[in-house]
């Protein structure tokens, strides 16, 4: 069933029954000429291909039509390859003919300045009025390798035609083609959508399509920016619901990268930390480079991770064996303990000086007796205690390496656990070519192979934990685009809102005079904390505006004098409401923090972690989109590096973690109930006591946005 965020079935775009190429050309190096060649010479079109060129009646033996209006039937897809100045007129013709899909290959729109943006807005307007869907502009086209259909001008299309279960969705064409050409390593990519400026259809639409496409098993995406956060999340949700891994490489993590991405696609790049948090929350596998993307996608395409996570290592070089075992341990992975029958067979076949326990080092014995490879590798691959086998090949050794490749290929046919051959040599010999031809896509280093296996294993663990339930269920609505004025509430106002929402707080009030401050403190009972109360002073401790541990009335009066004098000195123009008097938290405990910001792409995001003065220094934090589920709150608390402190490390009392989780959920519910109003929140520090003592925000900042 189509998700509400995706109102159009894309099947007729991806597998069209009829195609019109507008701008078909006899010039072989033109966009129209290259696209014509890819469609006529290298595609297997299951239907009609109409060539549209008003200056020609025939091209390469095919009839040419003067316009879309003159065609004998309405095509499913119009591929537009005319200059930018003519695209709008062609789109108007397509709209009048009710063409359902248009692929606009032409550049010179949103990426080309103000005039291009206006033209792009007109394209969107034409499509919306006619109920059309636009792919592009400024894109290389759409490539359905599994159907051998190239609606693209790329001269590489005829060379990148290895079918397979991987679906690829990108915005940029260059990096997308780079991934496509990883077919040279042995991977198969069945569908590539490169969406360009995304005036209408976005990467999210193709992730959503691939999530239910029967010929796609693994989804890979390269992102420069995300224009519609909820639409993107709905696509990830659909993939999660259908058990399909999504592997993502997001560019624009640094300021330099953000500027480059914006100039390329005019997309919002967003905060790298928020994007990564979204990926984790939706089970997306985030990678750091193209090699890792390809290695990880290949591993998922070979086999989905099962319950057995332990690894077998099979090698003929002692140093390489040790290097691989080190990499396994450093990555937090586990070497399998072989079943007794596996060890017995290895011991019977290999020399006495070979290592037959995992990792297996066959030694150089296999160099003189290649039959040893076949008899022993098969036994390791079939061991019931492991989830995959790593077979690092340190060097190209002619016939022996060829025999190793043959044995890996044969063994894989007999076992379910994937065998991961690692080709470490720069000499890509016949053994490497055999592995590629068999679809093994050998990683080129131990580190890259281990990175892919670690991500494969972690996804399997997370997916099994989420079995039978979706990862998230968020409303599919765009984040509000507030236009009202922003103001910071006073701490008293902020805490009053929190109290109304049922969030536990210590007693607090504002004194307007020195005498009133003493009376409030006497009523609360000592010790108390005194803070400057001013809407113009958010960071109170920075100007000497806080006193803690006040133990009697005289100290309250002294604190009044000192704090007021300090405020006048550092912030002479600030409006001062008085002195905030608050009951001091009990001794001990841990100081944490929780903050909420409104992300322009995804909406409200919570940041949680170590608080007090350490948050900016140590940056021990984790993030989630709101609203939080109880599972989200629990995992956030346990993800921070200082969690062992909460769990009672080195004799410390165990912290009241359930109260902390309830506090995070309460904050989430409060923000969601006031989503249009809350721009930012900062609860720092949050005091967390020992078991049963609770979790209490000691300071609160709320920035709200008024109605426009």
| Strands in their spatial order, largest beta sheet | 3-4-2-1-5-6-7
The CATH homology group name of the largest domain: NAD(P)-binding Rossmann-like Domain
The CATH architecture of the largest domain comes to 3-Layer(aba) Sandwich
The third-level CATH topology of the largest domain is Rossmann fold
Molecular shape: flat
How much beta, percentage-wise?
A: 15-25%
Task: Catalogue the unreliable spans.
Answer: 256-269
Protein described:
With 708 residues, the chain is α/β, with parallel strands linked by helices. The chain folds into 4 domains: 4-300, Rossmann fold, CATH 3.40.50; 306-464, 3-Layer(aba) Sandwich (Rossmann fold); 507-583, Dna Ligase, domain 1 (2-Layer Sandwich), CATH 3.30.1490; 590-705, D-amino Acid Aminotransferase, Chain A, domain 1 (2-Layer Sandwich), CATH 3.30.470.20. The strands form 5 sheets. It has a 7-stranded mixed sheet, with helices on both faces. Strands 9-8-11-10-12-13-14 form a 7-stranded mixed sheet, sandwiched between helices. A hairpin with a 4-residue loop joins strand 8 (141-144) and strand 9 (149-152). Helix 14 packs parallel to helix 15 (399-414) and helix 15 packs parallel to helix 16.
In short:
The chain has 708 residues and is of the alpha/beta class. The two termini are 38 Å apart.
Feature tags:
Dna Ligase, domain 1; Rossmann fold; flat; ATP-binding; Succinyl-CoA_synth-like; 7-stranded mixed β-sheet; 708 residues; NAD(P)-bd_dom_sf; alpha/beta
């Amino acid at each position: 069933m189509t998700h509400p965020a995706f109102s159009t079935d894309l099947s007729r775009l991806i597998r069209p029954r009829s195609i019109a190429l507008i701008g078909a050309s006899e010039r072989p190096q033109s966009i129209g000429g290259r696209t014509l060649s890819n469609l006529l010479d290298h595609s297997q079109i299951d239907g009609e291909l109409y060539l549209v060129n008003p200056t020609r009646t025939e091209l390469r033996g095919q009839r040419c039509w003067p316009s879309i209006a003159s065609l004998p039937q309405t095509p499913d897809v119009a591929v537009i390859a005319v200059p930018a100045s003519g695209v709008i007129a062609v789109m108007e013709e397509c709209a009048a003919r009710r063409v359902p899909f248009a692929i606009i290959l032409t550049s010179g729109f949103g990426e080309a300045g103000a005039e291009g943006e206006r033209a792009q807005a007109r394209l969107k307007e034409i499509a919306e009025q006619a109920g059309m869907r636009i792919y592009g502009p400024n894109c290389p086209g759409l490539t359905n390798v599994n159907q051998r259909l190239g609606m693209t001008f790329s001269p590489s299309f005829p060379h990148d035609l290895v079918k397979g279960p991987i679906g690829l969705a990108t915005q940029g064409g260059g990096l997308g083609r780079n991934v496509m050409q990883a077919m040279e390593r042995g991977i198969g990519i069945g569908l590539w959508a490169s969406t360009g400026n995304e005036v209408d259809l976005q990467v999210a639409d193709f992730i959503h399509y691939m999530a239910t496409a029967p010929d796609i098993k693994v989804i890979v995406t390269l992102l420069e920016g995300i224009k519609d956060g909820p639409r993107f999340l709905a696509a990830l949700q659909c993939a999660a619901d259908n058990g399909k891994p999504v592997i993502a490489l997001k560019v624009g993590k640094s300021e330099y990268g953000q500027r480059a991405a914006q100039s390329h696609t005019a997309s919002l790049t967003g905060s790298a930390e928020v994007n990564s948090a979204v990926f984790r929350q939706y089970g997306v596998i985030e990678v750091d480079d193209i090699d890792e993307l390809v290695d990880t996608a290949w591993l998922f395409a070979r086999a989905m991770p099962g319950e057995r996570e332990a690894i077998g290592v099979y090698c003929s070089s002692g140093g390489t064996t040790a290097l691989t075992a080190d990499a396994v341990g450093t990555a937090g992975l586990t070497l399998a303990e072989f079943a007794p029958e596996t060890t017995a067979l290895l011991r019977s076949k290999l020399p006495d000086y070979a290592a037959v326990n995992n990792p297996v080092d066959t030694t150089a014995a296999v160099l003189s007796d290649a039959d040893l490879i076949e008899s022993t590798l098969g036994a390791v691959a079939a061991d019931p205690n492991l989830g995959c086998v790593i077979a690092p090949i340190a060097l190209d050794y002619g016939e022996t390496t060829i025999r190793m490749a043959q044995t890996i290929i044969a063994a894989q046919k007999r076992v379910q656990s994937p065998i991961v051959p690692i080709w470490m040599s720069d000499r890509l010999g016949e053994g490497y070519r055999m592995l590629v031809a068999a679809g093994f896509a050998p990683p080129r280093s131990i580190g890259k192979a281990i990175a892919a296996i670690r991500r494969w294993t972690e996804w399997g663990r997370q997916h099994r934990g989420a079995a039978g339930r979706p990862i998230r269920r968020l409303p599919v609505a765009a984040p509000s685009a507030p236009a009202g004025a922003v103001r910071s509430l006073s701490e008293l106002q902020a805490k009053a809102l929190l109290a109304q929402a049922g969030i536990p707080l210590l007693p607090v009030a504002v004194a307007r005079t020195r005498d009133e401050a003493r009376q409030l403190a006497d009523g609360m009972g000592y010790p108390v904390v005194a803070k400057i109360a001013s809407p113009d002073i958010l960071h109170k401790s920075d100007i000497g505006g806080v006193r803690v541990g006040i133990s009697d009335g005289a100290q309250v009066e002294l604190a009044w004098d000192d704090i007021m004098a300090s405020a006048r000195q550092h912030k002479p123009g600030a409006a001062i409401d008085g002195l905030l008097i608050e009951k001091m938290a009990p001794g001990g405990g841990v100081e944490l923090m929780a903050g909420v910001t409104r992300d322009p792409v995804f909406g409200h995001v919570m940041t949680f972690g170590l608080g007090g003065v350490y948050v900016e220094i140590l940056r021990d934090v984790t993030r989630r989109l709101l609203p939080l589920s109880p599972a989200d709150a629990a995992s956030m608390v346990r993800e921070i590096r200082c969690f062992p402190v909460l769990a009672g490390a080195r004799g410390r009392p165990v912290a009241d973690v359930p109260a902390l989780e309830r506090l995070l959920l309460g904050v989430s519910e409060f923000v969601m109930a006031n989503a249009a109003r809350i721009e930012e929140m900062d609860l720092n520090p949050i005091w967390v006591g020992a078991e049963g003592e609770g979790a209490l925000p000691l300071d609160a900042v709320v920035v709200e946005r008024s109605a426009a």
